[in-house]
Amino acid sequence: MADVIIDNVEKTFFDKENKSSFTVFKDITTEIKSGEFVSLLGPSGCGKSTLLNIIAGLEQPTNGIINVGTKKVKEPGPDRGVVFQESALMPWLTVLDNVMFGLRKKMKKEEAKERAKYFLKLVHLSKFIDSYPHELSGGMKQRVSIARTLALDPDILLMDEPFGALDEQTRSMLHKEVQYIWEKTQKTIVFVTHNIRESILLSDRIVLMGTRPGRIVEIFDVPLDRPRKPSSKQFGELEERIQQKLAREIEKVMREEMGDDYNSKKGALLYHSDRNMGNNI
Ligand SMILES: Nc1ncnc2c1ncn2[C@@H]1O[C@H](COP(=O)(O)OP(=O)(O)OP(=O)(O)O)[C@@H](O)[C@H]1O
After folding, report:
1. Average pLDDT value for residue range 183-201
2. pTM for this predicted structure
């Protein structure tokens, strides 16, 4: 188990054809402690996924360093597992075989099978091990995807809007599931979301990112007992504080994108914390 140290990270994309460049963010510095649950929250385009991909080693930072423990992140590694919004299961394999797939190179078939079964039980899918992905709901597919990643035993679970494409009910069920998994496995979780309520429900800390320029606006501690109730006073107060900070960031984006149109439509565009941000407003 190891801390994730993000030190002065910048990401600039270069467009060689148009000879232009675009800095998504810079000076991102923070530390995620081993075993912590941290959400990256912010308006669309502020670079949440880009930062997650850099931690995963799928993208390189333009400047700065990310260390996991004492090791510099240069590429993907077994210490970090990623769960994306789309489950990307192999449709021709059963649920069990999907989870076993990544394990087959590391251990004997029987051992891989037992391990895959254990993690499918952890996500409450024991009854569906012989099903094929097309027979599962979106939420179930996402649980297979989580089991597949957990089976590889990463120290750090990187989740990029894993429940973003799911309906409210399923999402709520998976919130409970992910909290159970986190408590049971003690993994470090970095969780990208658009949703303030989701971030308060799940995290120890919320890193609120802003845009233009991309940066960390504020880091919020969430000192609430679990399981958390959105109806509680402290939950509501924190939600309000984050919402206000975020509204300013979103207003900035909309002003730039809409120009004169912004003032006339401002009332209708007011932000609500349980809705998605940015593009879906
Ligand atoms: N490979 C790339 N090349 C060029 N620009 C990119 C690339 N990947 C991301 N970007 C740009 O970087 C910015 C940040 O993207 P990113 O997906 O990280 O934001 P985000 O905060 O996760 O947004 P969302 O919440 O909408 O998913 C966006 O403007 C995006 O267009």
Report:
1. 94
2. 0.90
Q: Which fold has domain 4-48+58-73+196-280?
A: Rossmann fold (3.40.50)
Q: What ligand 1 atom has the least distance to the C-alpha of 15?
A: 4
ipTM above 0.90, yes or no: yes
Top mutation candidate among 9, 25, 44, 50 for ligand 1, by most atoms within 8 Å of CB: 50
Ramachandran bin of 133, using left for φ above 0, alpha for ψ from -120 to 50, beta for the remaining angles: alpha
Q: Comparing C-alpha atoms, which of 171, 109, 167, 169 is closest to residue 143?
A: 171
pLDDT tens per residue across span 15-62: 888 888 999 999 999 999 999 999 999 988 899 999 999 999 999 999
Predicted pLDDT of residue 126: 95
| CA 68–ligand 1 middle distance (angstroms) | 23
